[in-house]
Design brief:
about 170 residues; single chain; Alpha-D-Glucose-1,6-Bisphosphate, Chain A, domain 4
Length: about 170
């Protein structure tokens, strides 16, 4: 459904060109519980999400998944890949997963899910700062390209999850 680039203060420019708030909206043609199960199992993402090269589970967390830790290796449409460690800090089943991120980017990601007729509306908010020196240095020039790349990765996720849940 698409990704939009936002700023910390709507209507104002970002304070730091290396800060990104990217909001992606998906429509998944499957019931909420099935979408929740797929998103709540990041180790399964490489099977259906083209740009997720690997996910290693580092810690399991509690019964709700709070405290779980994962290491993601992402490829991209651009000639680079990134490594991100996540730590699940909030879970409200089956509506919300919030995780902090560290590694090549620092920040947090939030999955929000809700039933939408016979489908599930998914919104992902990715609020991060670039941590690689070359990314920070080039961010003022390449900001639109980084946002385009994120949009392509998220579009592949939406497509892959729809295919996975109907395959």
């Amino acid at each position: 459904m698409g990704t939009r680039l936002s700023h910390s203060n709507p209507g104002e420019a970002a304070i730091d060109a290396s800060e990104f708030i990217l909001i992606s909206d998906w429509r998944i043609a499957a019931p909420l519980e099935r979408v929740w199960d797929a998103l709540n199992d990041p180790t399964g993402w490489p099977r259906w999400w083209r740009y997720v090269a690997s996910v290693d589970k580092l810690a399991g967390g509690d019964a709700d998944g709070i405290g779980a830790r994962y290491r993601f290796h992402w490829t991209s449409r651009l000639p680079y890949s990134i490594n991100i460690d996540t730590h699940v800090v909030e879970v409200t089943k089956p509506q919300l997963i919030r995780a902090s991120a560290s590694g090549d980017v620092e920040g947090e990601g939030i999955w929000r899910l809700r039933s939408d007729g016979d489908a599930t509306a998914v919104q992902y908010t990715w609020h991060v700062h670039l941590d690689r020196p070359w990314m920070r240095w080039l961010a003022p020039l390449l900001r639109p390209m980084f946002a385009w790349n994120h949009n392509a990765l998220m579009a592949a996720g939406e497509e892959g999850l729809n295919r996975h849940l109907h395959g």
